[in-house]
Amino acid sequence: SFSSDEVIRKRLLIDGDGAGDDRRINLLVKSFIKWCNSGSQEEGYLQYQRMLSTLSQCEFSMGKTLLVYDMNLREMENYEKIYKDIVQYSLLFFKENSIAAAHEKISECKKQILQAKRIRKNRQEYDALAKVIQHHPDRHETLKQLEALGKELQNLSHIKENVEDKLELRRKQFHVLLSTIHELQQTLENDEKLSEAEESQETQMEAEAKQ
Known about the structure:
Layout: H1 4-15, H2 21-36, H3 41-96, H4 99-134, H5 139-210
Keywords: Coiled coil, Nucleus
Subcellular location: Nucleus
Region (Disordered): 190-211
């Protein structure tokens, strides 16, 4: 029995680049068998057309595969040429450049690294500032809130004035009430003293009359 890997490899070998060549071949064989066993001329002609269509698809797929194969060969040749050029350029570079040039290149790379670190640090600071700014409302929203607070403060000021006016009125009313109570108390005291004087006088008159 074949393993799953062997089955996959066999299918890839039969199917080419996975474009369905094995399916087309199977379809062609089935069409040929049906064409051989066709009972009528119309059915045979239909199977014949199907076989031609399948053959055209197979030829097209084969042509495409050949084109891809040729293209891959040219790409491999191009890559080999590029590789040789790179090797030659590298050898030439190491021959023509001295140790001083290498140190200069290293120094330039260090400068670029420092610059990259500064850029990264600045970006991190910008990101941190952006996050802080995002937590605060924008200018338009802040002005709207300030305007709403101003209106609310003005409303509270009017309420405070009304309360103070009411307190002042109640204070005056309470003062009048205290004055009235004081006068009433004074009147009651005077009436009480007058009653005591009249009772004392009557008592005295009764005593004189008995004598």
